[in-house]
Amino acid sequence: MDAQLKRGVLEICVLAAMREEDTYGYKIIKDLSPFMQVSESTLYPILKRLEQSGCVTEYSVEHNGRLRKYYRITGAGHDKIKDFLNDWDSVMRAYYFIRGEGYYDEK
Amino acid sequence: MDAQLKRGVLEICVLAAMREEDTYGYKIIKDLSPFMQVSESTLYPILKRLEQSGCVTEYSVEHNGRLRKYYRITGAGHDKIKDFLNDWDSVMRAYYFIRGEGYYDEK
DNA sequence: CGATATACTATACATAGCGAGGTATATCGT
DNA sequence: ACGATATACCTCGCTATGTATAGTATATCG
C-alpha cells in the first residue's frame, strides 16, 4: 500500500489487531502482512505513541530468556477505532468523487 | 477529515477536480469543500508538486487585472488516478480488518 | 556453523498537512 | 465613505509519521 495511504489507517489496524487478544510487536507485523507491509521501524514507534496516548497498556512476559512486550487495548483505544469508523463516510465520499460517479449513496 | 487520512487521498482529489475541465486553485478548494476541507497552504504546494512531477501543466489567464493560474491534467495525471483506484482494494481490506468482519468480498 | 526466524530499540531522513502571515482587487452592506 | 467579506495566489516554519539502516540477542534448522 502507498506510504501516504497508510497514514491514518495503519495505526487503527494496529489497535484492531489486539482487539481479540493481547498481542506483541512481531506478531502484529505477521498478522497485518497479508494486506499491509509494516516494518519494525514503523510499528514500534506506533506502539509507543499508542501507549503514551492511553490507547494501549503494556506488560512484559519472559520468553526464551528475553522479555516479550505484550499490548492490551484500553477503552480509549476502542473509542479511537469507533471514531475512525465514523470518519469513514468522508473517505468514501472522496473515493466516489475520484471515481467520478457522483453522489455517494449512503451504504 | 483527519489530517493523516487525507494523505494519499487529497492529491488524487485535486487531480480528479480537473478531470472535466481546466481549473484553478481557489476553485478547487470550493469544489472539494463539500466533503473535504483544504486550506490554501495545503493546496498550492500540492499543485506545485503535481506540476513538477508532470501530472499537470499550468498556464496563466488575466482576470480582474491579476493573473489566474489554470491547471490542466496530463496523461501522467490520469495514470496516477488509475493507480490509486487499483490500490483501493488493499485499502478496503484494511478497512474490513478494522471493522472486524473478516474477509473482504471482492466488490 | 552459517543462515534464518524471532524480538525489541535507536538514529536520521523525507514527505506532506496546516497555521500564520503577506499581497492585491472587487463587491456588498451600513 | 468605509470596513467586512470574497476572490486569488504565495511562503515560512512547525509537526507528525513512514522507513532505511543499524544494533543487540537467542533459538532453530539445514
Per-chain topology:
The structure is a homodimer of 107-residue chains.
Chain A: H1 3-6, H2 10-17, E1 23-24, H3 25-32, H4 40-52, E2 56-63, E3 66-73, H5 75-99
Antiparallel strand pairs in A: 1-3, 2-3
Helix pairs in contact in A: 3-4
Chain A binds a DNA duplex (30 and 30 nucleotides) through helix 1, helix 4 and strand 3.
Description:
Chain A has five helices and three strands, in the order ααβααββα. The first copy, chain A, is α+β, with helices and mostly antiparallel strands and 107 residues long. Chain A has one domain (3-99): Winged helix-like DNA-binding domain superfamily/Winged helix DNA-binding domain (Arc Repressor Mutant, subunit A), CATH 1.10.10. The first copy, chain A, has a three-stranded antiparallel β-sheet with strand order 1-3-2. In chain A, helix 3 (25-32) crosses helix 4 (40-52). The radius of gyration of chain A is 16 Å and the shape is elongated. The relative contact order of chain A is 0.14. The model of chain A has no long low-confidence stretch (mean pLDDT 91). The A-B interface holds A 1-13, 16, 19, 32, 35-36, 81, 84-85, 87-88, 90-91, 93-95, 97-100 and B 1-13, 16, 19, 32, 35-36, 81, 84-85, 87-88, 90-91, 93-95, 97-100. The structure holds a DNA duplex (30 and 30 nucleotides).
